[in-house]
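Troubleshooting: if your tokenizer reports a length mismatch, compare against these two reference records.
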Amino acid sequence: MSQNDQSRRTIVVDGVPLPELLDETTIREVVHGFYGEIRHDDLLGPIFHDRIEPDSWPQHLAKMCDFWSATLLRTSRYEGRPLPPHLAIAGLGETHFRRWLKLFRKTVHRICPPEVAALFMDRALRIAHSFRLAIAFNRGETTIGIAPIVEKDL
């Protein structure tokens, strides 16, 4: 076994080794591509424009790269709580999450090989479901009817 083989650890996500094709470069391309789509979207763009100043976008993109790196590559770069900013957005609902997921799916399928796109989408769908439940709970709404969104329904 070479020195490189010994220093390279295998990351396992949900019992499956992480595809070697997933790396920091891919994460950066997905994050920057996705937020490029969002910033021009008629539904989601205004939400971001109201909350992120133009000169703050580089920091936001870096934070999102850290988030996805921590989520998929198991790095420890992300320090934050992603839910509270979403709880503060009045009116954030199902339509917004479905659009977010559609744009995310479009981005990952454009940039990533299928097994990496599937990994990104699995995480995005889980995150969306968790946020939808938390937002409803925070608003005092019932969560009983909130079913997970599945990719084929986007």
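Reference record two:
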Amino acid sequence: MPAKGKHRRPKSQRLSRSIAAAGTGGAALAIPLFGAAGAHAATPQSAAESVASASDVAGKAADSAPAADRKAEAKKVATKTYAVRAGDSLSKIADTQDVGGGWKKLYEDNRKAIGADPALIHPGLKLTLGGKAAAATPSADAPASKTTQSAAKKPAAPKAANASGFAMPVAGATVGTPYKMSGSMWSSGYHTGVDFVVPTGTSLKAVGAGTVVSAGWGGAYGNQVVLRLDDGRYAQYAHLSSLSVSAGQAVTGGQQVGLSGATGNVTGPHLHFEIRTTPDYGSDVDPLAYLRAKGVSV
């Protein structure tokens, strides 16, 4: 009987190079097989090399950006804001914050926020370091519009000047913060005028005959009127809600110059009143003593 033959299952053909594997979206990826004769797999790019490559691309893109854009970005990074603290002065801030150009450059960049007097800064005031600041926005009543000013310029009622032509800046008012009161809230270290506590809308009078030097927004003083009196002294009215006069206008003692308010750096409505020997901040004298010397009952 013939011997039964043994059959071997044919060996599957060995792939010598690679197989194709289906990839995402139908793409094929060639996968090298272990032991494939003569096959050489490409060396994968390392993570560090990938990051370096991406950095090179980003750097080239930045280099190709317009010069104006790069300058604007650099300026944006260099500009920052500083909040004034008690005891600060512009020169001190310029020194401690390394402001190029010193306090004069700092004042120039923030003139609209500080106002006409560089010494008049107060705790909480925001200053821009390294660039121009935006115009200050009134925190209380807005500066009087031309329409409001025109309406207020109508002759006001009976004048209250004495025989010498002088009058109180506001009638029947209570004195709040007195002249020369010391405190860190004032940049000069003391109160340069006297505050009369009156509600918003109270009529304010020229203390004597003179000429309006300025009438408008004064930074921390809010809406203000400054008069050059005929005797050479200057009278300042600050924090007004509206103005009744304009620069260059002649006034007489007792004539209305505006209405009291709470514009600028204030905690409530009142009139801040000063008498100065010059129009500049720091030349103040005792306002009540001045009025008494003019025969005004204070």
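Descriptive notes for reference record two:
- The first helix runs from residue 47 to 64.
- DSSP finds seven helices and 15 strands in the chain.
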